[in-house]
Amino acid sequence: MGCAGSRDKVDETSKKIRKPKAWKHSEAITREQLTQMREEFWDTAPHYGGTKEIWDALRAAAEADLTLAQAIVDSAGVIVQNPDLTICYDERGAKYELPKYVLSEPTNLIRDN
C-alpha cells in the first residue's frame, strides 16, 4: 500500500499550504518596519502583472490562518506552486511571487516590550 494515493483525494492543482520555513531578515527589524514593508509590497504588487482580484485573495490568505488561507486560495482559483505561497499562478498562467516577509515574521524581529 503506497503512501502516494492514501491521502485525501486532492485536486492536482491544489497543494496544502503552510507557513514559510523560519527565515532571518538582512537586519533586525521592528514590527512597524515589517508592517511598512508589507504595505509597500501590497501597494505595488498589482503593477507586476496578474489581476487585482488574485492579489487581493493572496493578501487575504497571507494575513489569515492556514485553514482560512487554504479556503481563500482554493475559492479564488489560485494555483499554488510552492506550499508556502511564495510562488503561485492564476488560471490564465500569470505568476505571483510573494516575499517571505508578507507571509511570516523573521526570526530576528525586534519585539517591543
Automatic annotation (TrEMBL):
Q: Where is this region: Disordered?
A: 1-22
- A Pfam family this chain is assigned to: UBD
Renumbered to this chain, the Basic and acidic residues biased-composition regions fall at 1-15
Tell me which residues make up the DC-UbP/UBTD2 N-terminal domain. 14-112
Q: What is this protein called?
A: Ubiquitin domain-containing protein 2
